Amino acid sequence: MRYIRYAFLAILAIVLITVALANLGNVTLNTLPEGMATLPWIGLLAFSVEMPLFLVILGGIVAGLLIGFLWEWLREHKHRADARRKQAELNQLNRELRKTRAERDKDKDEVLALLDRAG
Length: 119
Fold this sequence. Notes:
One of its GO terms (cellular component) is plasma membrane. The chain crosses the membrane at residues 38-71. Residues 76-110 form a coiled coil. InterPro entries: LapA_dom. By secondary structure, the chain is mainly α. It folds into two domains: 2-75, no CATH class; 78-118, no CATH class. The protein is 71% helix and 8% strand. It contains five helices and two strands. The protein has helices at 2-22, 34-37, 53-75, 77-104, 110-118, and strands at residues 26-30, 48-52. The chain has a two-stranded antiparallel ribbon. The protein is elongated. The two termini are 42 Å apart. The relative contact order is 0.07.
């Protein structure tokens, strides 16, 4: 299984390097269209930068992955909270059970109490 993972990572690296070498040309990346950049308060957000196309492509992939991970983490919050609540309830019930068994077995012989707990 480890070799399959290494082979996959090697193929992925070759593909990404090939895409990067095929897209070395510079492009202008604008945050806003030219028409919106002239608006009074929105114009503060307008800037442009020249960078190689492969950085734009890879940056878009990374941004999409980060947004997806964040979205999934937020979506699963209710499941994590439910599991945490159930674990706390289980711990509470285990404490109560140990307390009840200790009260039940306080007048018993120690050997009989151990046998009751084991079986």
